[in-house]
Amino acid sequence: MTAMQKQVSERGGNVAVNRSVVRGVGAYLPKRVLTNAEMQRLVDTSDDWIVERTGIRQRHIAADGEMTSDLGIAAARQALVRSGIDPVEIDLVICATATPDRTFPATAVKIQASLGISKGAAFDIQAVCSGFVYAMTTADNFLKTGQFKRALVIGAETFSRILDWEDRTTCVLFGDGAGAVVLEAQPQHGTRDDRGILAAQIRSDGRYEDLLYVDGGPGSTKTTGHLRMNGREVFRHAVQKISGVIEETLVMSGYAPDEIDLFVPHQANQRILDGIAKKLGIPPSKIMMTLANHGNTSAASIPLALNQAFEEHRLDEGSLILMEAMGGGFTWGAVLLRW
Ligand code: ACO
Q1: How far, in Å, CA of 173 to CA of 34, rounded?
Q2: Bond from prior residue into 187 cis (ω within 30 degrees of 0)
Q3: Using CA atoms, how far apart are residues 162 and 171, in angstroms rounded to an integer?
């Protein structure tokens, strides 16, 4: 019997528990689009190589002076409007980002202030590409315990600022953007049929730091540094680690892969996603793909994909949504929720 099934049977499925229910989703992409054709003029690469190895065709790049907080604020505003919740009702703001405006204060605090929120708490989460999964998991734990009632969870990145634009092995992969969701604690029955977050799992293993990192920082070089990656090794770990944590998340909630209505993964590489989908038996028609147009936007990629799914009417009330990510650290994790 899984932990959740035990909880359900002990409670008879009738005792109310708090679940974190999505009330609204929003996103923002900078206007400037950088195509693979333009990329060919910056580094020794080709549209064919990028598309064949990654699935990426273009990415959005923040304008001069446009900061991570600006992207996050735009995404958050749209999510709030769609939720019908007044910003002053939000008591928790979490921003997942590896590209904060400043070393401190947290980008979340800036977003909080610009939305006119002055109660509760706001902080950033740094788990790179897994940031949104980490932020959703953290918010869920606060909402379940009743410490906060309504959370704004944002993934926002300006990765273009930490790329080495002379390194063709990394600069072609990433883009800028932001996405956000509004979560609200709502009483549910404590069964697997509830709405909201049903299971969340996060993992990390710092032994792999050297495979994906930034070669600078305030405490080491006093610079921002540039992203460095051993792509082949990251790839090797990705399918195995992500598939593993998805399986644990599904077991925890009592669901099988074929019950998922929509798979909304972190968008890193088409081949990684094909590998995971094949391993779990998820058909391509159930996978939300935005990689071709956005590139890898790190912590922003899942909420950007979730927003696109919403706008394409692929999220009905009751849909079972699976999200997953892996990133620098390594960090990885998965969230299962009912829309
Ligand atoms: N254009 C043209 N050629 C290139 C480029 C480029 N942009 N980049 C690398 N190459 C060359 C290499 O120099 C190499 O040439 P060589 O054989 O003469 O030495 C050749 O292409 C093959 O390089 P590999 O690194 O072996 O290529 P690979 O098939 O592994 O693809 C890639 C590289 C796309 C980075 C892949 O390894 C990958 O996607 N890894 C996962 C990384 C990732 O997604 N990280 C994101 C964060 S973690 C996450 O989100 C899962």
Answers
A1: 11
A2: no
A3: 9
Tell whether ligand 1 has an atom less than 6 A from the beta carbon of residue 53.
Answer: yes
Neighbours of 102 (CB within 10 A): 12
d(CA 284, CA 287): 5
DSSP-assigned letter for residue 289: -
Strand order across the beta sheet in which 150-158 lies: 17-28, 176-188, 150-158, 92-96, 121-125
Catalytic positions are 129, 266, 296
Nearest CA to ligand 1 atom 38: 231
List the structure tokens of 7: 């909880």
In tens, the pLDDT along 260-319 reads 999 999 999 999 999 889 988 999 999 999 999 999 999 999 999 999 999 999 999 999
Ligand 1 binding pocket includes 296 (Cβ within 6 Å) = yes
Ligand 1 centroid distance, CA of 227 (Å): 14
Structure tokens, 205: 């293993």
**Among 155, 149, 76, 143, which Cα is nearest to 115's?**
76
pLDDT tens per residue across span 152-195: 999 999 999 999 999 999 999 999 999 999 999 999 999 999 99
